[in-house]
Amino acid sequence: MIKRSLKQVSEMISVLNDVTPFAEVEINGVTIDSRNIAAGNLFVPLKGERADGHKYVEESIRKGAAAALWQSDVPNPPVDLPILIVDDCLIALQELARNYRQQLPVKVVGITGSNGKTTTKDMTASLLSTHYKVQKTEGNYNNHIGLPLTVLGLHEDTNIAVLEMGMSGRGEIEFLTKLACPDAVVITNIGESHLLDLGSREGIAEAKLEILQGLHEGGLAVLNGDEPLLMERINQHKGNLQVQTFGRNETNDIFPTEIIQIGQGNRFKVNKADTVYELPVLGTHNILNALASMQIAHYFSIPFEEMNKGLAGIKLTNMRMELVEGQHGEKIINDAYNASPTSMMAAIELVSNLKGFERKILVLGDMLELGPQEEQYHLQIGEGLDPSKIDYLFTYGALGSHTARGAGKVLGKQNVFAFNDKDQLIQELKKYLDANTLVLVKASRGMKLEEIVTAIQNR
């Protein structure tokens, strides 16, 4: 993590006051959370809708922070304390991260996409870790605040940083990629997330392709070659870059030649090597995420024949195809972190094809930020269910009721249950659970369906 004197920090960002009395004070890491101050931290107080971090500056220094920023429009900065006054604390945080990144010899991989970017980040970091010292984005630190904090947390001897880049609108990916200056990037796919803000899948594709604007000259762009919206636009891109594609189709640079489901994962082969790979992650769509990660690893000189070790060591972020057991021995796929029509259909396909269960139940909540066609998207999910492979559907939320309406046409209304009360859903769901049951729980993050998983796990 960043270790600099206040004199050096004042040369990396625009500071409005004289820091000479504290010039030799050294910061060790940066935080925006006064509850988690570590010795030597630089505390950055941010002004939010509900709280103003400036209230905690003096407390943070008492707890061990070496120094703090202070925004110039906030009155009464503390005197006789190591305070750096700046025009805007958030901009100063971002500028500090941008300059720190430029001072590091680290290579950077940037990953974005409508679905699968966190899983691809985890897979890429695992593969690269077999040969390099790697750090990656933790949790959901993938926005205009989280990414600068991740960069400032990089150790000076880290070889490769794998950074996830999220967005909610145009220009956000451009900002992140120009801060991180990646050597290689991945766009996992173009789905329907953010249709509310961007209006169309074409708009989403253009927003994701902003990641190229920070890519180093001659760097690598790994794209989902099955997505025409990406391929059309990459051909129009003017710049010196390498392009490699992955996907199901044989027209891609890397594609699966064989896929076999095994237990809690998959065994597969690709066109690049004779090696049989084992991926301890459920879902065919996750093989595609693995292919993108393998291309990045190969770009950094890891042979395809040596990638099984990295795949075996993958540890995914929680609530992403996480297989757990309920109190009656039922198997639960907890995929409650996020959802879009594309990822919802992929998860349902996975459940539909899993063998060894007498009963399969879907617990689906609202998919958010889908724009004017949100009701139609939910209806289509329900109408697309296969009654020979799915036994029951439970939905939660106002939009989920449209999924239930569509499913009633194919599963039969007696096998479909729609709820707006989570506790009532849980109580009814428990009646259908036993050791021969498989349950998928999936919705957008705001629906908090992990609460259902916890409830049916607890004895």
> Count the strands?
21
Shape: globular
Main CATH class of the largest domain: Alpha Beta
Low-confidence stretches: none
Helix content: 25-40%
Strand order of the largest sheet: 8-9-7-10-11-12
Total of domains: 3
Give the mean pLDDT.
93
The Rg value, from CA coordinates, equals 24 Å
The helix count comes to: 16
Strand content: 15-25%
For the termini, the CA-CA separation is 42 Å
Structural class: alpha/beta
Structure description:
The protein has 459 residues and is of the alpha/beta class. The chain has 3 domains: 85 residues, Udp-n-acetylmuramoylalanyl-d-glutamate--2,6- Diaminopimelate Ligase, Chain: A, domain 1 (3-Layer(aba) Sandwich), CATH 3.40.1390.10; 209 residues, UDP-N-acetylmuramoyl-L-alanine:D-glutamate ligase; 136 residues, Protein-Tyrosine Phosphatase, Chain A (Alpha-Beta Complex), CATH 3.90.190. The chain is 33% helix and 20% strand. The protein has 16 helices and 21 strands. Strands 8-9-7-10-11-12 form a 6-stranded parallel sheet, with helices on both faces. Strand 14 and strand 15 form a beta hairpin. The radius of gyration is 24 Å and the shape is globular. The relative contact order is 0.09. The model has no long low-confidence stretch (mean pLDDT 93).
